[in-house]
Design goal:
29% of the residues lie in helices and 35% in strands. With 79 residues, the chain is of the alpha+beta class. Strands 1, 2, 3, 4 and 5 form a five-stranded antiparallel sheet that branches. The radius of gyration is 11 Å and the shape is globular. 24% of the residues are buried.
């Protein structure tokens, strides 16, 4: 799946993150990604390893990877 633009001009992207196992993990990943400029919403789900990010414009995957690394997890890539 590639990034999709909705009617308000936001971009939604879904990433696969390995290593999340609990709510604290979800919060750590969400917190780091939410600090990226332009990000308006982040939802991490530990049970699936999926992180849905809504932003004003498409994000550079390396920027997202750096945020996930900072949280202590590994970005597998976009879904």
């Amino acid at each position: 799946m590639t990034a999709e633009t909705d009617t308000q001009g936001s971009v939604t992207a879904v990433y696969k993150v390995s290593g999340m196992s609990c709510g604290h993990c979800e919060g750590a990943v969400s917190g780091e990604i939410s600090e990226i400029a332009g990000v308006t919403s982040v939802k991490a789900v530990a049970s699936t390893g999926e992180v849905t990010v809504i932003s004003a414009a498409a994000l550079d995957e390396e920027t997202v990877r750096a945020a996930v690394d900072e949280a202590g997890f590994e970005l597998v890539g976009k879904i």
